[in-house]
Write a structure and sequence with these properties.
The chain is of the alpha/beta class. The chain has five helices and six strands, in the order βαβββββαααα. A six-stranded mixed sheet has the order 2-3-1-4-5-6, with helices on one face. The longest helix is centred in the last third of the chain and has 17 residues, at 161-177. It is globular, with a radius of gyration of 15 Å. The two termini are 22 Å apart. The relative contact order is 0.17. The model has no long low-confidence stretch (mean pLDDT 92).
């Protein structure tokens, strides 16, 4: 079972990213469990999305305490509390223009950074980073298939569908180009 935790701030698109990933995995025939925590339920407060993916029905009904992968929309949220339960095997992706070396103070984690704001701006999305991040995250996880994800992004984008698809593809290609880091 693949267990994913997504952390962001209200308004950044972390919840939508969880929905897009869940839909793409579901369309590939996987069993999905997806849920969210909204904290203060207002713009700027920390929000979390959780996703379990498996080839068989999922019977767990608890929070994800030991994630296999973390996607962090805001590097200011990347701290010991967010990393609780993470191990050296946990794949961690952070939206940041900084180098992964800038996060070494957090411990022996393998952190991958992606400048999703840069990708979003390049694709005329301003600060809308979720498409770029889920594309990059899919490349890091090697799932779901990029074709599945692109189809879901195109279908579920509330606006600028083609720009979101391009941003998702650019995020994916960036990580693939870097050798899957």
């Amino acid at each position: 079972m693949l267990q994913i935790r997504i952390q962001g701030r209200g308004g950044q698109g972390a919840q939508m990213a969880g929905q897009l990933l869940a839909t793409a995995f579901f369309r590939e025939g996987k069993y999905i469990q997806s849920f969210a925590s909204y904290g203060g339920a207002r713009r700027g407060t920390p929000v979390s999305a959780f996703l379990r993916v498996d080839d068989k029905p999922i019977n767990l009904r608890c929070d994800i305490e030991e994630p296999d992968a973390l996607l962090c929309f805001d590097s200011s949220l990347l701290d010991k509390a967010l990393l609780k339960g993470a191990t050296s095997r946990t794949r961690i992706m952070v939206n940041s223009s900084k180098s992964p070396d800038d996060f070494q103070h957090l411990g022996a984690f393998h952190i991958v950074t992606v400048d999703a704001k840069k990708i979003a701006r390049h694709n005329n999305l301003g600060r809308i980073v979720n498409s770029a991040l889920i594309g990059a995250f899919a490349a890091l996880l090697e799932a779901p298939a990029i074709e599945s994800l692109l189809a879901v992004v195109k279908e579920m984008s509330p606006a600028k569908a083609e720009e979101n698809v391009a941003s998702c593809r650019d995020g994916y290609d960036l990580i693939k180009k870097e050798g899957g880091v």
